[in-house]
Amino acid sequence: MIESALTLFPAVPLLGAGIAALAASQVTLMRRLLLIVLTVNTAAAAHLVAATADGSVFAHQVGDWPAGISIPFVLDAFSALMMLVAGGLILVSVVFALIAGTGRHRLFPALILTLLAGVNGALLTGDLFNLFVFIEVMLIPSYGLLVLSSRGEGTARSVTGSRIYITFNLFVSTLFLVGVGFVYGTAGTVNMGELAGSAAESPQVAAAVAICLAALGMKAAVVPVHGWLARSYPSTSPAITALFSALHTKVAIYAIYRIYAVVFEGDQRYLWIGVVLFSATMLVGVLGAVGEERMRSILAFHMVSQIGYILLGVALFTPLGLAAGIFYLLHHMIVKASLFLSVGALEERFGTDRLSELKGRIGADPLIASAFCFAALSLAGLPPFSGFFAKLTLLTAAADKGEYGAIIVALIVSLITLLSMLKIFNVVVAPSFTREEPAEPVGDGGVAVDQYKRTSLRLAAPALVLAGVTLMLGLGSQVLMELAITAAGGLVDTTAYVEVLTR
Questions:
Q1: How many domains does the chain have?
Q2: This prediction's pTM
Q3: CB 3.0-4.6 Å disulfide test: which of 171, 326, 466, 467 passes with 484?
Q4: Is the pLDDT of residue 314 over 90?
């Protein structure tokens, strides 16, 4: 039953996107269709997590064609967890977009549903070429969303950010396709089940797959190819920034974990490269945030830094290291979306995210302040939030592997991250405690204070929900860690994954 249903996860959103595009004039009805599809998708993904929690692996060869010819979809605990968190974050980001007005364009539902289809397909496919196809299915609507919702201080900044994003991703997609071509030329297949272990045995295949991994690393914003993210993400609307932060780089990270585990079989010879690159990513990202004066720009650089933490798990490639990396990946998707949405709520009310223009304004709204502070504490790795357990487990795994240099870098970066969050707190939150009156809204055309209070809950609710999730994941970290350990087990021993792909 589950095997045959896997194709529905990309197919149903694509069908919904087609309907939404054809009936785009029925704006209200298509928004309802969008929310229904997103809700059902998230609920179905939760069922998949339950089905794979014992380590089960499911696969379906589309059209019942034989392995190596058909389009293969394969599901395990790792892909199910990613689908659940990604689907839930798309839903929350869309709700915020509809509240804030970003999602009012008539093509918005069609673009979001196409994006969802690409995400689900990329997380389920067991074929490198189809991974490229589904990543492109993700990117095409993203270009539309970026252009339709671009914002910032003036048109020039928005256009520049959009141009960087589109140009860079087109280049990287081309590079990834070249790598896939070399893989087929050297190995005679792009089915990951048939490629299992081939990179560890053949230098030619290893070099070809390395091109694919390099392209995915660029998509994930690994140093030194990270500047595109910091310049393009803050140029769009807060809702789309949160959406992109939860999806594009994270799908690339998922693919890096999957490809290295299956095709390289965790080959220890190359792991030192990852340790060096990902430690540098941690440090350069957080240092980039220090000099920024816009809240979303600060968060974008922190996103680069946290990607280094996540990928350190695959560079360790031990059962605990992989589990810690997966835990960190899921935690970060939720926390970063919460931060972007809380900043987005502030920006929607006051028309700016520049620190110098927001002095004391978050503190005037305890809802937004709470959402931001909870997520910021989790990002910095303080208990009892999920970030503390993610970092603690990752550092423990690094110590077990003897990577003490990476541990030192991670601790330094955590301290700078905390200081950076305190910088925002001291400028934007703390001054309000000495005010007799809350700061007046500046970006809403003179909305009265009582109306401001009524609309504040709606704007802050999505970020508050996600901040609450990171707190619950911290208090109940054992549940997520057990699922992450199961997912990591499927990467350490890929036998079941390979068997369902090749039979």
A1: 1
A2: 0.91
A3: 326
A4: yes
